[in-house]
Amino acid sequence: MQRFREPETQWDQHRPPGSPRPRESRRPDTQTKTKLQSAAHPNDGLQGILQQKLRQDVNLRGYGLEATVVDNVARVQGVVDTLAEKLYIRELISSIPGISGYEDGVSISTDGAITDGQVAMEISEELDAHPASSGKVGVQVCDGTAYLMGKVPSEEVEAEIIRLASSARGVIQVISQLRIDPEIEGS
Fold first, then answer.
1. Is there a contact between 121 and 115 (Cβ–Cβ < 8 Å)?
2. Tens digits of per-residue pLDDT, 121-154?
3. Residue 149 CB partners (closer than 8 Å, separation 6+)
4. How are strands ordered across the β-sheet holding 66-70?
5. One domain for residues 95 and 138
6. Which of 21, 43, 88, 99 could form a Cys-Cys staple with 69, CB 3.0–4.6 A?
């Protein structure tokens, strides 16, 4: 004796008796939902760490930089005043364990019209104050790119001079054409 069963849905009314009733759950089970949530944002922890570092850093916190992390690749967006600060962001990010790459979305502000001549003068003043470069290093600036020319006694001094040039307002890139000559005094 077959009992009469109420159809589960309006579509079940049209199914012949004895046919299977395929059904999908209207709500995912809790384990599946948890897995989907954790897979949706695997970089949230890294992004939080990076954003916190940017906001707590004395040199960067005033800029309001925004960070995202996707597939362990960090991207920072915003505007800073100097190339040195832009390079510093790259160093800061590379110190965070778990971040495997960096996409640079940071621009350098020139605070209005600044000429290449003004940039060159600012760099020259910094170089003149540095004992190792006194009269042996020159600079030429073209469209915000500073070209350093001359001789220095070591790679360490070259790195210091590049750092000095990078800290000038309006510099977007520094290209070193410096030659290392250990016989030069003054490091």
1. no
2. 989 988 888 776 767 889 999 988 999 999 988 8
3. 137, 138, 139, 140, 177, 178
4. 66-70, 73-80, 101-108
5. no
6. 43
Contact 135, 185 (CB under 8 A): no
In a domain, 15, yes or no: no
| Residue whose C-alpha is closest to residue 168's, from 90, 116, 133 | 116
User: For residue 185, is it within any domain?
Assistant: no
Q: Token pair 């570092």 is at which residue?
A: 53
Q: Each residue of 3-16: pLDDT tens digit?
A: 555 555 555 555 55
Torsion 162-167-169-170 (CA) sign: positive
Residues above pLDDT 70, as percent of the chain: 72
Query: What is the Rg, in whole angstroms, of the alpha carbon atoms belonging to the chain?
Result: 30
The answer to whether residue 13 sits within a structural domain is no
Note the pTM of the prediction, 2 decimals: 0.63
